[in-house]
Write a structure and sequence with these properties.
246 residues, alpha/beta, six-stranded parallel sheet, binds NADP nicotinamide-adenine-dinucleotide phosphate
Length: 246
């Protein structure tokens, strides 16, 4: 048995730690986007594979017997590639996805980041808190009417909105901290992806109690027919049941 974990999330690190502790042969893969990533236990490789074709070749060359896609819910390209490559190489695939944040009837939900940028443009208020990540900033760049409080892990390297205050930070965050930040910047609208999980959920509670509007970007759909679990325990069980090689 040799497992490839497609990572870049806390869940991927937790799964790698469990498998390494159980002496499973596991290889974690990171895209290489973050300058100083939190590294999982065990063997790690960094960088793209070269699309679905490259990943298929990688699975074969490395003798991978099972893939766990534990990437971020918004990493839709690698998830689609993994489904294609696993099918091509005849390797079983499990998608580990944390549950979505439960829909709150007060949120405005949009299907993708472009729709979020259009909704922000039409929003009559002044100060927007953007937590959608540095790689999605370009769609907000033409908006010179709003003030943007932008929080990212690494500094943006593409186009950004002209009236931007940048905060470099990474979770976990607290409700108190999030409330203080939103108050300090007079935030009236929070824009977030429905990433789910506890690391970054505090902003939603803070927004709720401060009556800050929430614009929620929905997740991209999973490829059809993927076997999906929500917890690390379920992923370990799937592996222990022999689904990823003996
Ligand atoms: N999107 C987010 O909001 C977000 C948030 C937190 C963490 N992350 C993590 O950041 C990484 C990149 O996310 P993304 O949204 O840029 O992905 P993406 O748009 O789905 O993928 C773009 C390309 O990046 C490469 N890639 C992505 N994840 C990889 C991995 N784990 N190992 C090797 N190559 C990978 C692949 O390149 P090739 O085609 O060359 O193979 C893929 O085609 C992922 O590991 C994800 O879990 C993403």
């Amino acid at each position: 048995m040799r497992i490839l974990i497609l990572g870049g999330t806390g869940e991927a690190r937790a799964l790698a730690a469990e498998l390494v502790a159980a002496d499973v042969d596991v290889l974690s893969s990171l895209a290489g986007r973050v300058r100083e990533p939190r590294l999982p236990d065990g063997t790690v490789r960094v960088g793209g594979f070269g699309g679905a074709k490259g990943l298929t070749a990688f699975l074969r060359a490395e003798g991978i017997t099972g893939v766990v896609d534990a990437t971020h819910p918004f990493a839709g390209t690698v998830t689609a590639n993994a489904a294609q490559a696993a099918a091509q190489a005849g390797v079983p695939l499990l998608v580990l996805r944390r549950p979505e944040w439960e829909d709150d009837s007060s949120w405005d939900v949009v299907p993708d980041i472009r729709a979020a940028a259009a909704a922000v443009r039409a929003w009559p208020g002044e100060s927007v808190f953007l937590t959608t990540g540095r790689r999605d900033l370009d769609v907000f760049a033409p908006d010179d009417r709003h003030r943007f409080l932008v929080r990212t892990v690494d500094p943006p390297d593409g186009p950004v909105p002209p009236r931007m205050t940048l905060v470099l930070d990474r979770g976990p965050y607290t409700v108190e901290g999030e409330s203080a930040l939103m108050r300090e910047h007079g935030v009236g609208l929070l824009v977030t992806k429905n990433s789910g999980g506890l690391m970054t959920a505090a902003k939603l509670q803070a927004a709720h109690s401060l009556q800050v509007q929430v614009l929620m970007v929905a997740r991209p759909p999973l490829p059809r027919g993927t076997v999906t679990v929500a917890t690390i325990a379920e992923a370990v069980r799937w592996i222990n049941q022999g689904n990823a090689g003996a």
